[in-house]
Amino acid sequence: MVKDAHAHHHHEHKHNHNKKHATQDHDHNHGPGHHHGPNNKAGLLIAFMITTGILLLEFFGGLITGSLALLSDSGHMLSDSAALALSLVAMGFAAKPATLKKSYGYLRFEILAALLNGVTLFVIAGFIIWEAGQRFFEPPVVDSGSMMLIAFIGLIANLLSAWFLMRKGNVKDNINMRSAYLHVLSDALGSVGAIVAGLLMLLFSWYVADPIISVIVALLILKSAWGVIRWAVHI
Fold this sequence. Notes:
Helices cover 81% and strands 0% of the residues. The N and C termini lie far apart (69 Å).
């Protein structure tokens, strides 16, 4: 009888011990630190597809209408498409496990991607400023109506991309997502610039507005590029 009681008590102790371990394991897996985080990849992919589509629209639109503001914005968008593609590749690398040689895994690849993005932007901004300088003294006539329509479509698309990045990704804490988000936002500013230039040309035939706005867009590009470069180098 005593033996049975002892065996029963031992069994109950073992059952409780196992139950406790199972609970601990469950807590370990679903504790406060464990949550299905934001889907950065989906946000980036959507933004990449939208940006690439608008880049083509603005590039050909810029050639057809003769607008440097549209071409500069498409140049900006080209760097953004590359930036978003790079961010997607970086995200794939960052997910790789650590090795003996790379004890930190590939996480820092994201920082390198952000740094490269910043440098690319610098080059594109320089090209835009140089081209605008050529146009200051003899601004060509621009088809401002079509230009404004294309810039407006670009603006809506950029805001949509920014919204998807905000909704699906972690823009606040992930430098890679943040640099992509800054790219898209500065694109939106570029589209606003092109709309303003188009309006000035339409109302006042003030064609010098096109290179002026292009330079402003280029300076905005430089500002965001410098921020990303400084940040990446700091890390």
